[in-house]
Amino acid sequence: MKNIKKEKFETLKIKTSVAKKFRRVSRDLSKSHSMTLLSMVVFFEMNSISPHEMMGPKMQTLENLVKKKNKCSYRNFERYREE
Question: Nearest to residue 1, comparing CAs of 27, 29, 37, 28?
């Protein structure tokens, strides 16, 4: 992942409504769609969560974890991305 700018592009087929929502979210998170998607995947991997599982009581734990890690999340992301 070190040289993400030098990588070639891959095409993903997604529904128009999903693409519109993703573009809206992407503007707030990153300069590129690739970096937004990478950030999301890294977040799920680092926190061992799945969008398909119910958060229930985990939501409070996740909320606390995100608040604590918010300060160093960029550093963690950069380190994880370089692996």
Answer: 37
Beta-carbon contacts of residue 45 (< 8 Å; ≥ 6 apart):
80
20-76 pLDDT, tens per residue? 999 998 988 888 898 888 888 888 888 777 777 766 666 667 677 666 665 555 555
CA distance 20 to 74: 26
In angstroms, how far is the first alpha carbon of the chain from the final one?
A: 7
Contact 80, 46 (CB under 8 A): yes
Tokens standing for 37?
A: 């998607």
* pTM of the predicted model as reported, rounded to 2 decimal places: 0.57
Matching residue, tokens 């692996």: 83
